[in-house]
Specification:
The complex is a heterodimer of chains A (111) and B (112). Chain A is mostly beta strands. Chain A is built from no helices and eleven strands. The mean pLDDT of chain A is 93. In chain B, 0% of the residues lie in helices and 52% in strands. In chain B, 34% of the residues are buried. Classes of the chains: A mainly beta (111), B mainly beta (112).
């Protein structure tokens, strides 16, 4: 069963702008992860944030986690055309043994 | 480079004809996962192996089976593919715990 829901479903921006994607989930988690998927390819792990963390950075990526609201956001600063992809949040299943993915946000960055 | 390799990249099979997709890893991860992803949808977990322990998702059709003969290899068998099984099949690996997954490039299955 689906755990995470991303919002918006699609996002179009210009190069240099920031992109923000949100993820909401239903049950308690150990960690939340964000992945990128280029068209027709496998997923690439971007960042993992644990349930006791509130914010994490990796290069141009900033992830926040609010466990009281069961939500997370992914911010990509100074977007580039190469950031065009689908972005998925994922949380662990009830047994804590595997990731369940949300439907994803499709980001399009135009130059 | 350590990686997850899926073969073939594209697979065309006939309706009802058994097909096997393969996944290999050089990361020595103890968990291997199979996901099914249909167009514009989220990857859906089919099953996973923790070492040799097989874990099937409750809603995975019986038509789908898996084998993990050793740490490095994992296979997805579709016994009688239907048109609805056309999808991208993604293999992923990780260590158990708070770790990210490493995905292969996927196998796109077409059923004719």
């Amino acid at each position: 069963s689906q755990q995470g829901e991303e919002d918006p479903q699609a996002l179009s921006i210009q190069e240099g702008e920031n992109a923000t994607m949100n993820c909401s989930y239903k049950t308690s988690i150990n960690n939340l992860q964000w992945y990128r998927q280029n068209s027709g390819r496998g997923l690439v792990h971007l960042i993992l944030i644990r349930s006791n963390e509130r914010e994490k950075h990796s290069g141009r990526l900033r992830v926040t986690l609010d466990t009281s609201k069961k939500s997370s956001s992914l911010l990509i600063t100074a977007s580039r055309a190469a950031d065009t992809a689908s972005y998925f949040c994922a949380t662990d299943n009830q047994a804590g043994t595997a990731l369940i993915f949300g439907k994803g946000t499709t980001l399009s960055v135009s130059s | 480079d350590a990686m997850v390799i899926q073969n073939p990249r594209y697979q065309v099979t006939q309706f009802g004809k058994p097909v096997t997709l393969s996944c290999s890893q050089t990361l020595n991860h103890n968990v291997m996962y199979w996901y099914q992803q249909k167009s514009s949808q989220a990857p859906k977990l089919l099953f996973h192996y923790y070492d040799k322990d097989f874990n099937n998702e409750a809603d995975t059709p019986d038509n789908f089976q898996s084998r993990r003969p050793n740490t490095s290899f994992c296979f997805l068998d579709i016994r009688s593919p239907g048109l609805g099984d056309a999808a991208m099949y993604l293999c992923a690996t990780s260590f158990l715990g708070d770790y990210g997954y490493t995905f292969g490039s996927g196998t796109r299955l077409t059923v004719v």
